[in-house]
Amino acid sequence: MFELLSTELLQAYWWCIISVLGSLLVFLMFVQGGQTLIYTIGKTEPERKMLVNALGRKWEFTFTTLVTFGGAFFASFPLFYSTSFGGAYWVWMAILFPFIIQAVAYEFRSKPNNLLGHKTYEWFLIINGLLGTLLLGTAVATFFTGSSFLVDRSALTNLADPIISRWMNPAHGLEALLNWRNVALGLSVFFLARVLGSLYFMNTIADEEILLRSRKQVLFNIIPFVVLFLAFLYGIMIRPGFAVHPDTGVIYGEMNKYYHNLVQMPIVMMFLASGVVFVLLGVALPLVDPVKNGSSGFWYAGAGTFLTVFALFCMAGFNNTAYYPSGYNLQSSLTIYNSSSSRYTLVAMSYVSLMVPFVAVYVWFAWRAINRRKIDAAEMDGDGHAY
To answer: Are the C-beta atoms of residues 134 and 190 closer than 8 Å to each other?
Structure first.
């Protein structure tokens, strides 16, 4: 079946898969957002115990999706993997470290006589929630703003040093924090994760005080999210983008490129608009009636998050656009055409990807099985001490 597809269609197919995984990852970062609210929403030890246990039931989904996202990028677009993960290693190390301490925290927080004490592990979760969201959003923003790297394929003939991708900034990725557009998207992801985390608590925990405080946090965090996300969109729409000539592969600057992408890909514009509407609807419903709509708001906002991030990935990679621009050498910029695996690898992996729907069904049933009923104080007094 996949052998009948052209190489260009296979590359587009795998960019869609990458986009789906990236969108799912941002949605699942409600775990990180919720972790930053442990002391804001949980005022007593039993309340914090309910919050941590609610998040502890889902943190592995986020961690697994992050690993899958990286693995899929490595397999389908290895030149991006070697360029970004190999060159911008400081920012990726800064992203991975908070996820490591998150795993440690969930493993040892409630262990009797643990070395550091459960409050220390709770701060590990807060650090993960802050840095994980901010840095990951900042890294994704470089798909639009560019990074400082050089790709020299002729280096493969140099047996002494056959490295084709070189990072040309000594900060090795951390320089992305100096671009306000990158930081705006990073902070957008942070505040969006806090909104989703608050909605998740309303969806999962049966406690009136936590419900009311979560509702308040939804309102407090949606405002900076909207402002920062609109600032990011405005920032990338008014500046030159990075276009690719479809025949020659030459990369050149095009004014308002990402605006043109939305106009020329109306389905992507529909995804973006629908995503924003669903996020705002997911926020509005619990604010109007938190008791009746507290559970449904999380799913509306989650669907909106998925659609919005998917649209951003499509804007970055499709319509003859360089998805990873080089600010050092424009022709070193990466596209889905010049950075993908071989046709043989893409075909082989495409057959493996047919298992994704089965995995999705398994995840759905696992999610439902874990959330058999809402967490309450009585459960915490019983067997709810795993985290």
So the answer is: yes
- pLDDT for 383: 45
146, 327 in Cβ contact below 8 A?
yes
- Torsion angle (degrees, nearest 10) of CA 185, 225, 127, 41: -170
- Give the chain's residues under pLDDT 70: 156-157, 159-161, 290-294, 370-372, 377-386
What is the Cα–Cα distance from 109 to 387, expressed in whole angstroms? 6
CA distance 94 to 238: 30
* Distance, CA of 226 to CA of 164 (rounded, Å): 40
Contact 302, 317 (CB under 8 A): no
Nearest-angstrom CA–CA distance, 197 and 135 = 18
**250 vs 60: CA distance, rounded Å:** 42
Q: Token pair 């507290």 is at which residue?
A: 294
Helix axis angle for 180-204 and 296-317, nearest 10°, is 150
Closest to 178 measured CA to CA, from 153, 141, 207 = 141
Give bridge partners of residue 150 from the DSSP assignment: 166
Enter the tokens of residue 139.
């890294």
295: how many CB neighbours lie within 10 A of its CB?
Answer: 17
pLDDT, tens digit, 9 for 90 and up, residues 278-298: 999 999 988 877 666 567 889
d(CA 182, CA 186) in angstroms, rounded, equals 6
